Amino acid sequence: MTSADQNFNLNTRGKRPSFFEADETDALMTALLETMSQLWATRNQVTVLQKILIEKGLLSKEELEKFVLSDSEKVEEHMVMQAFFSDAFRAMGSATQSLESRQRDIDRLQDEVDDNG
Length: 117
Fold this sequence. Notes:
Helix content: over 70%
Order of helices and strands: HEEHHHH
Mean pLDDT: 82
Number of strands: 2
Number of helices: 5
Distance between the termini: 60 Å
Radius of gyration: 24 Å
Number of domains: 2
Shape: elongated
Strand order of the largest sheet: 1-2
């Protein structure tokens, strides 16, 4: 058995199958595969839309290949992209709260309960 085989554990008991020792690895792989399938679906839609636009004569293949966003459009797209990634990684950031920070939050909440109780 190779080291790669040792890391792969098919456990189908329970609600969800488990393929790796760490649940986090399974969750990450699930997220990666979901992202890949969504990317594939999006690429397929873009290809279909491009073909339709070209076939209907609304856009030539050359126009499509030469199209460039304006500087203001690039800035806007960059801002939208940053917001997208911030939103996507928000859950990961909250999961990495330090123990000290978490303890401060608990202490603060306990103080509030004590003051109001």
